[in-house]
Amino acid sequence: MKVFVDEDRCCGAGSCVLVAPDVFDQRDEDGVVVLLEDRPADHLHAAVREAAGVCPAAAITLDGTA
Amino acid sequence: MSTPSGVLVVGASAAGLATAEALRRKGYGGALTLVGDEPHPPYDRPPLSKQVLAGTWTPERAHLRTAEVLDVLDARFVLGDPAVALDVPTRTVVTASGLELGADAVVVATGVRPRTLPGQADLAGVHVLRSLADSLALREDLLVARRLVVVGDGVLGAEVAATARGLGVDVTLAGPQRFPLEAQLGPFVAGVLADLHAERGVRLRLGSAVTGLTGDGRVDGVLLDTGEVLPADVVVVALGAVPATEWLDGSGLTLDNGLVCDARCRAADGVYAVGDVARWHHDRLGFPLRLENRTNATEQAIVVADNILGAQRSYEPVPYFWTDQFDAKVHVHGTPAADAEATVVDGDPAARRFVVLHERDGVPIGVLGWNMPKQARQLRLHHLAPQAPLPEGRR
């Protein structure tokens, strides 16, 4: 799995951090998403998929289904 | 309930799409159909009053998913064909074109429609803002507008005022409150917002209710309860919205400020509701609640998907919304109230970067961040444990 984030779309809600804190963080200054792991380990995939699903700005996209 | 062999989602916007995606994520492999009243693939509404209205995004950029991602969803999209009736016992939906679609589970995600003023439909130059078409039509008018009056001092009205001002339009914001969003933010933060609008040249004509529109063929003014008329050649009516449940009249489902559901977001056996239209019983709080928040659409969708697949989850979110106006990004967690005690707990209001905690009787009820989204979210986790009660007025 490869994770992409679109900083321009990000609204800073932090929903992704609540769901998958090992993969996503937010910048201190403006809350925009910070991707900690662009190829997260297998055990994180379910949480990352949920994070992409709940993102209220559709700013997280995933490549690959592994 | 056993795993359904067919799921029909009525509504192809954020909540409907999120439900469909959550079902697939959780392994549902049966038939999946989404019915939408608009011709577009699922798109996002928050940009309609900001990036799309400002013209910094093309309309396509508001689409929630690419065509390729929607393909992988393996769902049938019936678009531009609104549902007009639901037969609850057989879970059959009829569309305007006459399609009859049956399923084991039906998810109602038809959202809300804007409130309007009397006579509005007969006057050119008067707009509401809910759909992509609304946003594009308003933008076209704003590009040649001389004087815009925004009727409504809530989130949408204030966002439209800010965006229009950014386009160089002469903007007046009218509404009954002392400050924009006072009910949502409380007087302290709403006062900072009022200052921001005034600094950027928005005329605030607050504290008076709007009673009607004037004009012959085309709008030329907005009438206040003081008798004053605010001249306008374009008007946006942003007076809130009502649940889009007319199509369920006579279905036997309970309609009362939304489609009434139990704690599991279930309106009847095999019928669920999600998003703006759903008024579900919040078990922890002990009363029904309906939230028109963007994150609610996706969070509730996950619970509905689980329950369709046999879980018995009750839905108990911490409410949250954000709004972007000029350079301010305001993030609101929980249920701040105008009469709550407000304390600055981080940052500095003078620097326009701060977090405010709202408390009632010493109990935290809301966290509001102004250009401090991360810190507000962290303080939400600290203060807004799931047991925080909602104030009476927000039920």
UniProtKB/TrEMBL annotation, chain A:
<keyword id="KW-0411">Iron-sulfur</keyword>
<keyword id="KW-0003">3Fe-4S</keyword>
<keyword id="KW-0408">Iron</keyword>
<dbReference type="GO" id="GO:0005506">
    <property type="term" value="F:iron ion binding"/>
</dbReference>
<dbReference type="InterPro" id="IPR051269">
    <property type="entry name" value="Fe-S_cluster_ET"/>
</dbReference>
<keyword id="KW-0479">Metal-binding</keyword>
<feature type="domain" description="4Fe-4S ferredoxin-type">
    <location>
        <begin position="1"/>
        <end position="29"/>
    </location>
</feature>
<dbReference type="InterPro" id="IPR001080">
    <property type="entry name" value="3Fe4S_ferredoxin"/>
</dbReference>
<keyword id="KW-0249">Electron transport</keyword>
<dbReference type="InterPro" id="IPR017896">
    <property type="entry name" value="4Fe4S_Fe-S-bd"/>
</dbReference>
<keyword id="KW-0813">Transport</keyword>
<comment type="function">
    <text>Ferredoxins are iron-sulfur proteins that transfer electrons in a wide variety of metabolic reactions.</text>
</comment>
<dbReference type="GO" id="GO:0051538">
    <property type="term" value="F:3 iron, 4 sulfur cluster binding"/>
</dbReference>
<protein>
    <recommendedName>
        <fullName>Ferredoxin</fullName>
    </recommendedName>
</protein>
<dbReference type="Pfam" id="PF13370">
    <property type="entry name" value="Fer4_13"/>
</dbReference>
<dbReference type="GO" id="GO:0009055">
    <property type="term" value="F:electron transfer activity"/>
</dbReference>
TrEMBL record, chain B:
<dbReference type="InterPro" id="IPR036188">
    <property type="entry name" value="FAD/NAD-bd_sf"/>
</dbReference>
<dbReference type="InterPro" id="IPR050446">
    <property type="entry name" value="FAD-oxidoreductase/Apoptosis"/>
</dbReference>
<feature type="domain" description="Reductase C-terminal">
    <location>
        <begin position="320"/>
        <end position="380"/>
    </location>
</feature>
<feature type="domain" description="FAD/NAD(P)-binding">
    <location>
        <begin position="7"/>
        <end position="301"/>
    </location>
</feature>
<keyword id="KW-0560">Oxidoreductase</keyword>
<dbReference type="Pfam" id="PF07992">
    <property type="entry name" value="Pyr_redox_2"/>
</dbReference>
<dbReference type="Pfam" id="PF14759">
    <property type="entry name" value="Reductase_C"/>
</dbReference>
<dbReference type="InterPro" id="IPR023753">
    <property type="entry name" value="FAD/NAD-binding_dom"/>
</dbReference>
<keyword id="KW-0274">FAD</keyword>
<dbReference type="GO" id="GO:0016651">
    <property type="term" value="F:oxidoreductase activity, acting on NAD(P)H"/>
</dbReference>
<dbReference type="InterPro" id="IPR028202">
    <property type="entry name" value="Reductase_C"/>
</dbReference>
<keyword id="KW-0285">Flavoprotein</keyword>
<dbReference type="GO" id="GO:0005737">
    <property type="term" value="C:cytoplasm"/>
</dbReference>
<protein>
    <submittedName>
        <fullName>FAD-dependent oxidoreductase</fullName>
    </submittedName>
</protein>
<dbReference type="InterPro" id="IPR016156">
    <property type="entry name" value="FAD/NAD-linked_Rdtase_dimer_sf"/>
</dbReference>
